[in-house]
Design goal:
The complex is a heterodimer of chains A (101) and B (371). With 101 residues, chain A is an alpha+beta fold. Chain A has 3 helices and 5 strands, in the order βαβαββαβ. Chain A has a 5-stranded mixed sheet with strand order 2-1-5-3-4, covered by helices on one side. In chain A, 26% of the residues are buried. Classes of the chains: A alpha+beta (101), B mainly beta (371).
Chain lengths: 101, 371
């Protein structure tokens, strides 16, 4: 079970107050960022286009991904997430950049 | 019993203002989609309970919300606005080619005949259409692929398609306007387009007969006279009597002919309204006096409407989609400001008062007259 914490505006869209949990299939016990985002969008279609571009699948520029005190934003989406995330001991944090007013 | 519903899009959410036909007491609901930019909210003429809203932030992109109960409850619908085929390039501010890139929806125009059909104007400029209540969107590619498209350049607000005018009696005809490409018309339901900018003169364009490149801010029309168009250009207020084939300036005695909003009285097709703004470098009213100007003769002769509007220390702007009219017997005029006020006149502009004063900056105002 993967734990995901969305930024507040996206929590409103999916009508959840806190962390959400996702079943994500991973080969050899490894889970990728792409697999988590695919599962997230499959469960909550309203999130399609809000975290990554519909067409290019690139991360939206003002969003970042963190886990285990690491910035994973520029990691390859098909690389493995940290084991602590894959085992559900740490959440994947999707964070809106602090910018604007 | 008649009623009025005012749909307000702001920098930080949407608001719905409602009154009975007397327009003396107003209920204010909102914010809906709090914290998001709501560029436009508009109801379907075919079913007033159907309302569409364009919701966006730079962080999370574009959403479209739909209400089937007059703005009480909302559900997100489709938000995939994908340019079809080869994207191509337009010109960037510095004159270099730049690929089309979707940023946001500026304007939603529901069909006058079908509540499930709605058009969306995008930045970078393109026209999308949904025929399933907003669940899916398809681009009408003939516009973006117009031969002049490679020459289109953004205005200060981006390369935005901000005006869409449909014709209930002639559904194959569509008018749109783009900053800063100009206005375009389709006579085949959006398959093909041609620029309709003859007669526009714009500073900075050396060719006096330039087909495109004009910073059209807004276009308005009265449904009873579908070939008569009124335009607030960057500078100049313009009129066309032949569906955009030719334009003539009608700025007349306006104190400044820069501005954004323009609209037409619901029952008097030659009575038009603008809000003059000082200049393109100072986006606020002249001398701190918020004045709507009305022409009862289709332009050139204008009168200032000030009764109830602030006449000192007022430095707000009124944006292009932030003026609307109701169709009650005594036509109501409404506009919103970047200072968060929504002003309204129940008597065609003679007297004004604020329905609300402290909303976030108002981006758009639309009115539904409910019978």
């Amino acid at each position: 079970m993967i734990r995901v914490l969305l930024p507040p505006h996206l929590r409103v869209l999916v009508r959840l107050g806190g962390e959400l949990q996702l079943e994500v299939d991973g080969a050899d016990g490894q889970v990728t960022l792409r697999a988590v985002l695919d599962a997230l969008e499959a469960r909550y279609p309203v999130l399609c286009g809000t975290i990554r571009d519909h067409v290019t699948q690139k991360r939206r520029p003002y969003l970042r991904f963190f886990a285990c005190e690491r910035d994973l934003s520029n990691e390859a989406p098909d690389g493995p997430l940290p084991e602590e995330v894959a085992k559900g001991r740490e959440p994947l944090l999707i964070v809106g950049a602090m910018a604007g007013g | 019993m008649s009623a009025v519903r005012v749909l307000v899009g702001t920098r930080k959410g949407a608001f719905v203002l409602e009154s009975d036909g007397k327009r003396e007491r107003w209920d204010v609901r909102g914010p809906f989609f709090a914290g998001w930019e709501i560029y436009h909210v508009k109801g379907s003429p075919a079913d007033p309970n159907r309302v569409y809203a364009a919701q966006n932030t730079a962080w999370f992109g574009q959403l479209i919300q739909r209400s089937d109960d007059g703005g009480k409850n909302w559900q997100p619908v489709g938000n995939k606005f994908a340019y079809e085929g080869e994207t191509g390039t337009h010109l960037w501010y510095d004159g270099t080619p730049r690929p089309w890139e979707f940023t946001r929806i500026w304007h939603l125009e529901p069909s006058p005949n079908d509540p499930d059909t709605v058009y969306a104007g995008a930045q970078d400029a393109a026209l999308f259409r949904s025929t399933d209540g907003g669940q899916s969107w398809n681009e009408l590619t003939g516009l973006r692929r117009h031969p002049t498209g490679t020459e289109w350049q953004p205005g200060a607000g981006g390369l935005c398609l901000h005006t869409i005018i449909l014709d209930a009696a002639r559904p194959e005809r569509i008018f749109i306007a783009i900053s800063a490409a100009g206005s375009f018309r389709s006579d085949d339901g959006g398959a093909t387009w041609r620029p309709i900018n003859r007669g526009l003169r714009s500073q900075g364009i050396p060719d006096p007969d330039a087909e495109v490149g004009h910073c059209v801010h807004h276009v308005a029309r009265h449904a009873a006279r579908p070939d008569v168009l009124f335009m607030q250009k960057h500078w100049d207020v313009m009129r066309s009597d032949d569906a955009g084939e030719t334009w003539n300036e009608i700025s007349g005695n306006l104190p400044t002919d820069f501005g954004f909003a323009i609209d037409v009285h619901a029952h008097e097709p030659d009575t038009i309204y603008v809000v003059p703004i000082k200049s393109d470098s100072e986006h606020f009213p002249l001398e701190g006096m918020l004045r709507v100007y009305r022409s009862r003769g289709g332009g050139n002769e204008w009168e200032a409407l000030t009764n109830g509007l602030p006449q000192r220390d007022c430095y707000v702007n009124v944006l292009r989609d932030a003026m609307a009219v109701d169709s009650l017997d005594s036509c109501g005029i409404y506009f919103g400001t970047t200072g968060g006020q929504v002003y309204f006149s129940p008597d065609a502009g003679d007297h004004w008062s604020a329905i609300v004063r402290d909303l976030p900056a108002v981006l758009s105002v639309e009115v539904q007259t409910l019978k």
